[in-house]
Amino acid sequence: MEIQSNNSNRVTLFKKGFFLKFVIIVILVAGLYLYSVRQTNASLPRMFASFPLFFRMLREDFWPPDFAYFSTALNQLIETFNIALISTTLAALLAFPLLFLSSSTVNRHPLSYRSFRFIMTVIRSVPNIIMVVLMVAVVGLGSVSGILALTIYSAAVLIKLTSESVETIDGRPILAIKAIGGNTPQVIRYGILPQLMPLYLSHILYMLEINLKASVVLGFVGAGGIGQLIRRQMSLFRYDRLGMIIFVLFIVISIIDYISQTVRSRLV
Amino acid sequence: MIEFKNVSLTYPNGVKALKNIDLTIQKGEFVVIVGMSGAGKSTLIKTINRLATVTEGEVLVDSENVMRLKENRLRKLRTQIGIIFQDYNLVGRMSAIRNVMVGRLGHTTTFKSIIGRFPQKDLQLAMRNLERVGIGEKAYVRADQLSGGQKQRVSIARVLTQQPKIILADEPVASLDPPTSHKVMRDLKRVSKEDELTTVVNLHFIDLAMEYADRIIGMREGEIVFDGPIEEVSEKTFEEIYGRPIREEEKRGD
Ligand SMILES: Nc1ncnc2c1ncn2[C@@H]1O[C@H](COP(=O)(O)OP(=O)(O)OP(=O)(O)O)[C@@H](O)[C@H]1O
Ligand SMILES: [Mg+2]
User: Fold this and answer.
1) What interface predicted TM-score (ipTM) does this complex get?
2) CA A58, CA A66: separation in Å to the nearest integer?
3) Less packed terminus of chain A by CB within 10 Å, N or C?
4) Cβ of B47 below 6 Å from ligand 1
5) Whose CA is nearest to atom 30 of ligand 1?
């Protein structure tokens, strides 16, 4: 049999009309870029022109760092770390039972399932900083507001990340446990948790990494810890101390990220 | 004893999977159901522990109407009926013995099972059952690190640990190679006789059916078209059940 090769039944990898769509999308994206460059006045020459200034500042203001400031910086960083640790732990405890409410595998009431997911989406859409500003307004300056804001935010993120995994776990062992006469707690304990736990722990560690960085930033708006210190030293133009703080931050965050990533790669 | 009284089952999408089934399976029998794909074998098995819902007639297990049971009584009944799946349905991340202990859940209080405190005699039962199917030394190996045949043995041990009266097995060896299929079927038959269990097995391969069944039930398009002791069964019987000559690939060989 001869293979037809006239135009009407040419075989292509893409659906017909794909090329046109592709060109339109490229033009749209390029347009957006141009627009944003004009809006922000950004230009490569301007960026390059700022480099010498940047290096001069590093050399003259930040150098030498104030080594005597090391212990103060470290102490504040420990407070920041504690904020991250406490809020991650609280979030993990809070998110765990709620996890099952927001996964259709366990929660079979469509209404409560949907409304719960909706609330979670709303919470996640509030930026961290706004959340802290709100909390500062409620409980005042200091680490408690940071802890509250981070706990709520990371619980919502944890639920989002992990409840999606609950939906994709292997349903066959669950069917087996139900067929054996197991009840819902037993299905969760022996069918779902063994599949879910490594993932959940890994998400918790990831959340700790994120919260550590977030709580540095949140300090700026009054949530305590090293962020507050950075802000104070900046307003005093003590760039030598700032240099020390950044150095300590860099070391500690790198170490914690490294530990967390090593543990996570073992988990999954 | 399992009784089907004029049972029909129509799935919500309109497929008539079972049509007027009348059937009695005595205690201790080892029954094999054969039939072409789509004949309704899996459906028939699932109605026994109500994984599928009959739409007409009644299914009785030890004189109890399965369809009438409330949630609690149904769970109780299910603890009496073990089931073996084609894909084993084990939790890959748990060790073999932990998977076997899942069979014990129906006999353990919720609290004790959640905190994982099983009575020592139950753990010994689990280990003994792993040994009975020849994989005692794999007790602490994770299920996802076992071969297909070993996984199916874990699932047989799980069923035995459940100490049921009935075992249902839906194509238990369909995912295994021929020699392993025979070994697993031999193990299943042996333990089922030792524990005097009523066993209902779906099989695709006619030589496996001929070798291990006490009694063969043939299904076609939702109906029972043959029912008789193994002595009455020949290759001709299968041709009648399938409605056509038997192909070589429908025998598994060894
Ligand atoms: N959950 C379901 N919903 C709707 N129809 C179904 C469902 N399960 C099975 N069926 C249909 O019911 C009929 C019988 O299916 P069943 O699974 O019992 O066949 P089977 O004999 O086990 O086949 P196989 O040998 O392929 O496993 C088929 O036509 C199938 O398409
Ligand atoms: Mg089937």
Assistant:
1) 0.87
2) 14
3) N
4) no
5) B38
